[in-house]
Amino acid sequence: MSANDQPSPGPAPSGGDAGSTPSWQWPESVWRGHTSAVTAGRPLLPSRWPQGARAAVALSFDSDHETIPLRDGETSPGRLAQGEYGARVGAGRVLRLLERYGAPATFFMPAVSALLHPDEARRYVGEGHEIGVHGWIHERNTLLAADDERTLIARAIETLTEITGSRPTGIRTPSWDFSDSTLQTILDLGFDYDSSLMADDEPYEVVAAGEPTGLVEIPVEWIRDDAPYFTMDRFNSVRPYTRPRDVLEIWKDEFDAAYRDGGVFQLTMHPHVIGHRSRLVILRELLDHIAAHGDVWFATHAQLAGIARDQLDRPTSPETSR
Ligand SMILES: [Zn+2]
């Protein structure tokens, strides 16, 4: 995800018969087709967590840095500096905080961001964190031809692998968006998991047009993303600004409920958003709150996906689907 980034409109109705027909005139086959293209299948919550933990905590940081303005062709130094802060200040603060809690995390990094800040990308891996794919330049995948989308993701895999020496196994699509081709591209490129969809609180198997794909989804949500609370548009009179301590309360409630459920607390942040002094303090207090429980499993998204994948080997029965 990204700051100042709204979800783009979904794909235009496909299938030929829909075309520019307004949605209220779609035949049932069209709206059923759209809602069944990519859906949630088997829940992949394990019956027990590693290390006897009661719940899992999966922290993620999307190290977009300068790629948001670059993606939009905004090249003014003023606009780029907001992203530069994420690399220069935010990422280091985040890494020091994670080290203090011994908490591994996943950093989803656009390839251009990794090329601009290769030492940072290597540091993520060197300090025991995971690096995941987050597009080439945070491109808007719903505007791309299928071949272009695939080429950019494949190039991003190669770039991150070359820079860090670690081949990514997971993807978070830029802006959490899916084009008509995204799922097939993810499957073809051999990813173990995706973390861009939000059909559940807990990991699940992605289903394509009714067919299980074997792809693990580590779901996200705007509720558990720093950007919607803290970012603003200076030329827009609307200031969707939330007090950091109010966000802390929301995230604590999310964690507490996940803990009671024995489930997953997944969080998405951005070094250039959460890395500011008045915001990092809430991450520290959140980690204090979580760590005080003792029996939580801090995992990278890849580790969590590995546990979830094990659930795929369980015998399938209709009752396990929902
Ligand atoms: Zn992003």
Walk me through the structure.
The protein is of the alpha/beta class. The protein has a single domain, classed as TIM Barrel (Alpha-Beta Barrel). It contains twelve helices and ten strands. The strands form two sheets. A five-stranded mixed β-sheet has the order 1-7-8-6-5. It is globular, with a radius of gyration of 19 Å. The two termini are 28 Å apart. Bound molecules: zinc ion (ZN). Residues 1-2, 62, 64, 134, 138, 174 line the site of zinc ion (ZN). This is NodB homology domain-containing protein. Residues 1-27 are annotated as: Disordered.
N/C terminus separation: 28 Å
| Mass-distribution shape | globular
Which architecture per CATH? Alpha-Beta Barrel
Q: Report the helical percentage.
A: 40-55%
What is the CATH topology assignment? TIM Barrel
Number of DSSP helical runs: 12
Using only C-alpha atoms, the radius of gyration works out to 19 Å
Which residues sit in consecutive blocks of at least 5 with pLDDT less than 50? 3-17
Strand content: 5-15%
Q: What's the structural domain tally? A: 1
List all distinct small molecules, including ions and cofactors, that are bound in this structure. Answer: zinc ion
Order of helices and strands: HEEHHEHHEHEHEEEHHEHHEH
CATH class annotation: Alpha Beta
